[in-house]
Amino acid sequence: MKRTRKSIAFEALMFLAASLMLLPLYILVVVSLQTEGEVLTRSLAPPAVPQFSNYADAWLGQASGTLWGGLLSSLSMTIVSVLIVVIVGSAAAYAVVRFPSPRISNGLQAVFLAAITMPVQLGLVSVYAFLNAVNLSGSFIGMVFIFVALEIPLAIFLFGGFLRALPRDYEEAAQVDGAGTWTTYWRIVFPLLRPAAGTLAILAALRLWNEFFIPLVFLNGSPLQPVPVFIYSMIGLYGADWNLIFASLIIALLPVLAFFLVVQKRLIQGIASGLKG
Amino acid sequence: MAMHPRNRKLAQRLLVLILPAAVIVLLFHIVAPLVSLGYSFTDRRGVIPRDVQFIGLDNYTRFLTDPVAQQAFVNTVVLAAFFVLGVIVLGLMLAVALNQTLRFRGFLRAAFFLPVALSPLAVSHIWRYILASDGPLNQLIMAMGGEPVYWLADPRFALWAILMVVIWQNVGYAMVILLAGLQAIPEEILEAASMDGAMGVRRFFAITLPLLAPAMTIAIVLMTMQGLRLFDQIVGLTGGGPVNATETLTTQLYRQAFAFGDFGFGSAIAVLLTILVLGVAAVQATILRRRDKTGH
After folding, report:
1. Residue whose C-alpha is closest to residue A163's, from A226, A109, A229
2. Contact check, Cβ <8 Å, A101/B110
3. What is the CB neighbour count within 10 angstroms for residue A49?
4. pTM to 2 decimal places
5. What percent of chain B stands above pLDDT 90?
6. How distant, in Å, are the alpha carbons of A138, A148, A197, B180 from that of A84?
7. Residues 6+ apart with CB under 8 A from B157
8. Across the interface, do A149 and B28 touch by the CB < 8 Å criterion?
9. For residues B247 and B159, what is the distance between their CA atoms, to the nearest angstrom?
10. Considering CB atoms only, which of A119, A155, A210 is closest to B229?
11. What are phi and psi of A118, to 5 degrees?
């Protein structure tokens, strides 16, 4: 495609559209650096003197304990859950896809696929009652169990698709050499699953990090509350001090933003290749 | 089921690998919903049940006669329908546009997709600032000579304000899916069409769009699932108000089951939401599958 004046103008137009799209984020940054006075004027111009102290106030201020706690909580719950999902999900997908009876194999795959479309909220009521009954309601383990249950169907779907396309030569060679089922899977197949594991990890991590409904039910007000619940609890905390609110938001959003910038290419390609499957 | 003895051994060993995942999914996605379904026929309240009575379909009739519940149902459907429409149409426009660009496609794609990765709660905070009665949007409107709109406080506009926010946040997701679909269309087909005289708009509707059908299907199904279950932004922007104007099945479900502790009624709402979601999914599956088969 030739670089005509028309195409340059078109790309400029697209940049304008992207800027409009990201305008709320621009507002987020600008207001977070404003003084109280500037906030009252509702000006969107970059502040004369950026108030980086707002970040210090947000970090050390009223909500300090919970902001830091929220980040730690989200980090630990997300990482542990994703690790379990990748390990358990890939093993299960391997077993389902390689199951000697095609009827059972297809049946299981259909069940896991159906689980993806089921809305979570229905089961949550009885899970809530159950976890309360066994005193695990506000616990780390309870949340991890639920998080894992949320993502396993997707894991089976992604790994399954990947495995179906995988040639069996490596496994057959290993079995000729006398490797057992577990060894074949863990030593040969699992390392080959890395692309699918990567895509799954990114998708699951993003979804679990931003999950709000479920932590709201179980961890509202608890010291274990993850980032989204913390943000929700901020409504009313800083009143109309939008600069402090936005400074807190930026601190809370930084991990996800950094993560996104690193994985976005991989993530988008993963979605695109998932489409072909 | 006749299975070669060697296969049976293999099956047994594979079963061990399947078991953890299968148990978790069974418990969480099958047993738990069934138990909740059971709750919906009782008057169970609170975490420690006291004197739970079977009350048949009372929770359901209560739902059907409760005006707030009716509003919630209507809102759920309206929100989902316009959400899918907005996200697909705008996403398609962006995808087509991005398909034309060359040098900065990667950057632009990331830019439009970025809001999808952000916490909907954080996004809600930002938009509450933007949509405030003295916020930037109203200032723009006033600068153009109009009257400020109470986007979030006026029951007439609140739902549409929420719609605006959720479309903004999710259009990038639809765009990415549709863009991948567009890029999968072989160059040769488009060139052949051009040589046969089909150009521009005509080529788009006659050739490109039908070839985009699979990606379109995926995008529509995914966005519908999401649209019917919108929760975070509603809670973050209006909390279901003003005066229940923005309540949906999900917010009602949360309020009844977990805020008020009425597990029976809350479960009934959840069951109705599930029926709605599965029903829509089934309808979409048949329509879209039939279209894929006939190629139209």
Report:
1. A109
2. no
3. 9
4. 0.90
5. 55
6. 20, 7, 12, 30
7. B149, B150, B151
8. yes
9. 9
10. A119
11. -65, 130
